[in-house]
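Every protein is a chain of amino acids, and every chain bends into a shape of its own. The fold becomes a row of whole numbers, each drawn from a learned catalogue of backbone shapes. The protein below has been through that process, and both of its lines are reproduced in full.
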Amino acid sequence: MSSKIDPITRSVVQHRLSSIVKEMGEAMLRTTYSQILNSSRDFSLAICDTRARLIAQADHLPVHVGALPWATLVVEERFKDIAPGDVILLNDPYHGGSHLPDLTVFVPVFDGRKRLLWTIVRAHFSDIGGATHGAYNPGATEIWQEGLRVPPIKLSEAGRPREDLLDLLALNVRNPREFRGDLAAMLGAAHLGERRVSKLFSEFGAPIVEAAIEAILDATEQQTRAVVSTWKDGVFFGEAFLDDDGHGRSDIRIAARVTKQGSDIEVDLSASDPQSTSFVNSSHANMQAAVAMAFAYLIDAEIPKNTGALRPLKVIAKQGTIVWADPGRPVTLCTSHPSNEIVEAIVKALSASCPERAMAGWSRRFRIAIQGEDPRSGRNFIWHLFQARPGGGASSGGDGYSSIGEWHSVGGLKFGSLEVAEVRFPLHFRRHEFRENSGGDGKFRGGLGVALDLVLETTKPARGNTAGDGVRYGPCGMLGGEDGVPHDYRLISEGRPPRVLRTKEVGIEIGPGDCLEIRSSGGGGYGPPAQRSAEARARDREQGLVTGDGPAGQGS
């Protein structure tokens, strides 16, 4: 079928589909209610077909997009009676989702009576019910303690919204107004995509678009295999570690055995440690997304990241391990951890096959969610820390990006305007600047983390939860580079000694005027430090990025 499409038509259709997904993203950014979406952009969009193949996406969050084909597969298996005007919603990690805070909306696209595609929106909600505010429960030992579970359901049928289901969902979260507004924005973005794809069908004809899609996927596969075939053949090993699970277990190992033969890659995670009683487990879809991320980071940036690019990749994993938990296990942290460690283990392994493509470690995620009362309005608020973004890993191309984020988002998550955050929430950002000496040393230096001093401006105590990792293991150095400096978070309260914050805590009391001293991690260095040029070191010192004894210091 693909041979019937000329390259120009194929390119036009490819760019139209890509632009449609980008426009959906712009609609989300402009219509969502919550800070986590309209400021931090914790959402992703895609187009999949009825065979659960990823056709088009935009540059949002890789950990979201890589899991969407698996969610589509579950929807296809669940419903055989999809009609125009239907809308599907899900979030359950054991029914196609990644973790409970990520809701996913599917809108079918028809040509006449034939259903061809889905326009899909996934977005992270700031609360999803459960035992704790903010959608993360470090104390959870089963998924029912993490929040509201939604298997694939019809939220609209033939264009008629199910108001009873909307009421049920909103009743089970702590911020129903934001929840309804954000869900409405998702529906609007997905329907926008539906209209744009339908217009594409009317302009070219659905058969031409279908043939172009086949050609796009085939061409992408060909490009990807051409890259992989240049890598060294062999069997390679890599590993990464979680600090702990918050329940007394530490040094949890993620192990990758990667076989490269010709233009094929096999990633085997079966030797990873057993699953945990806590929320550091991964769901199956999330594990698949993490492997896809690692592979995508190593191929050429201009290759479209669709199903065609993943055809050379085979994934093997064992259920009951930390990377693929049994049903019922808590998994809320999984999109950050162990996703980041899965990526790191695979990239470490393949650094022996394609060393010039293997970047050093990007930082781990260490989040804080605060619930309290805003004295200016008397209303309750839930605020999520997206500021103090940590540093990215260096590569053969140069130093790592500073304050860019983690492996699973690679810059897709933003922190937005500090001034706007202070208007929306009772917070004062007293300090927010690069954390000197935090990037790992090397021929190319890791990106810097951030030093943030955040003061709570409430009149009543607030409560905080933490969820993350990376206070013991810093982002890995690569090929002789040094590790980045780990996270260091502290709570400063008048009349009390500084309190070190652990990465998995519930119910932290944060009083009026208390200060959170956040020191986020720097990225790993690439190549031996002895090979760093004198000019680069002088520039680092001139700009204040490296002081004193240099990257081996702990930052301030």
Notes: The first strand starts at residue 43 and ends at 49.
